[in-house]
Amino acid sequence: MGESKKLKAGVIRNDRHMADGRTIRYYDTAGQARNVEDARPQEEQPGIGELRLDPLVNEWVVMAAHRQGRIFLPPKELCPLCPTNGELLTEIPESDFEVVVFDNRSPSLRPPAGDWALPDMVGPDTDLGTAAGKCEVICFTAEHGKSFKDLTPQRARTLLEAWIDRTSELSQESFIQHIAPFENRGEEIGVTLSHPHGQIYAYSYIPPRVEKMLAAAKKYKEQTGKVLFDEIVAREIRDNERIVARNDRWIAFVPYAARYPFEIHIAPLNPVADLTGLTDADRDAFPEIALEVTRRLDGVFGIEMAYIAAWHQAPVQVGRDVMRLHWQITSVRRAPGKLKYLAGSESAMGAFIMDMRPEQSAAQLREVVL
Predict the structure, then answer these.
(1) I want to staple 116 with a disulfide (CB 3.0 to 4.6 A). Which of 23, 92, 112, 322 is the partner?
(2) Which domain range does residue 283 map to?
(3) Radius of gyration of the chain from Cα atoms?
(4) What is the percent of the chain with per-residue pLDDT over 70, rounded to a whole number?
């Protein structure tokens, strides 16, 4: 039998081993027993990938060639994220589940063997590294055709508890520097499985976007003595024209310099460094605003919006006094049948150009009748 752990909001986590040795974690609220064995034949897990430095910009690039063969948009009856049913043996051995987290079958990053260190950056002479880290899959519901916005408030609360638990546990690993839970939704942004799910990437280095945010936050703190993200939230409350939704504990707004046709940042009004810092009141108030925002997004054009929803939080070891937790949802949909393509200026130069003022998209989101 696996281990059992009691979390908040009545959530119990039960751990089991899969046939190939990976761990699967069930997050339940109804006292379910989790004892079904994975009946699939044992498979060898892929080896660890390479970590190479791009010396032009001093950014790490992961080479994970073993991911080429992963499954691509299977029909519902072959979905590997549905519960096991009869002869269809999936990643989840049980016949039903609430929220489940398991180690990715084709991970970009995986735990290293023995002691591990990031190679020293010395330009083109930087050593080849191994792609240390962790990649996990998190399934929001057993129901295949659903989406995050269709979750009950209780299920969204259980999901948040799972995100918090994984952040807490992964932070204990010596080789982990940054933890990023995210959800990709929609074929337009490259989703390969249509079951409602997200992923958790735990990096052995600080990703480039986080490095830039950290540098800006540190500089602002040195110059003003204040925390940059706190000042951004204060400005949005003061301007009051880009706010999409709010409750006693959270605020959702379109940022002043949004890069995407629809971009929403959701932040706790009680600022914290990462998910583990959220109070019980913060956690309990999250489902209300999260479900409202995702329903508003789908309501803008009356169609399912492709989006990336990513948690930004402070790195594990550094910047915890200047970085703030927030949930960023970005959609490339600018109108029915029209996407914003990240082409020459955005992809080649990293210089974003917006065709729509953030105040306009905020108004469109507010005007959705729920």
Answers:
(1) 112
(2) 210-367
(3) 21
(4) 98
* Average confidence (pLDDT) over 153-162: 98
Residues 6+ apart with CB under 8 A from 363: none
User: Among 188, 205, 222, where does a domain finish?
Assistant: 205
Nearest to 214 by CA among 353, 321, 65, 342: 321
Structural domain total, the chain: 2
Catalytic-role residue among 17, 178, 195, 197:
197
pLDDT of residue 71: 66
**DSSP characters for 278-347?**
--HHHHHHHHHHHHHHHHHHHHTTTSPPPEEEEEE---SSS-TTT---EEEEEE-EEETTEE----IIII
Residue pLDDT, tens place only, 344-355: 999 999 999 998
Instruction: Choose the final residue of a domain: 161, 185, 205.
Output: 205
All residues at 6 or more sequence positions from 223 whose CB lies less than 8 Å from its CB, including other chains: none
The total number of residues written for the chain in this structure: 370
- The 10s digit of each residue's pLDDT in 126-141 is 999 999 999 999 999 9
Q: Is 326 a catalytic residue?
A: no
